[in-house]
Write a structure and sequence with these properties.
Elements lengths: L2 E7 L11 H4 L4 H14 L2 E7 L3 H14 L2 E5 L8 H8 L5 E5 L21 E4 L4 H14 L2
Parallel strand pairs: 1-2, 1-3, 3-4, 4-5
Helix pairs in contact: 2-5, 3-4
Amino acid sequence: MTKHITILNGPNLNLLGQRQPEIYGYDTLADVGATCAKLASEFGLTCELLQSNWEGQIVDWIHAAREKSAGIIINPGALSHTSVAVLDALNAFDGPVLEVHISNIHKRESFRHHSYVSARAEGVIAGFGVEGYGLAMRRMGTLLAG
């Protein structure tokens, strides 16, 4: 049976490629999804990429992933720094969780230096641009091998 990966994206990531390209680059979320799908297939995985500006929707998708996904890759956006609800939902998920940030949150405003999600994540990738998603997918493939 093929293992499935859920890739979650939080608020404002629907504007990827348009919003602050000096920080986030010009690739769109659709570009990210295509890259992740290609890499997933190399590891015998499938994936779906989801984005919402609503915290509750992210929580619902994490709950749904409990039944259908072997792992979660999440870029929670600003929810990283504010959402205990997302952390609690991730704590109810049994598979590996990898956290991705396009920018290096530790070089930005001090309020961005802490992520609640990091307390649950097996790994955190920050500051590699959208390439971080590919790095996360490769790591997920390694974690789920066998």
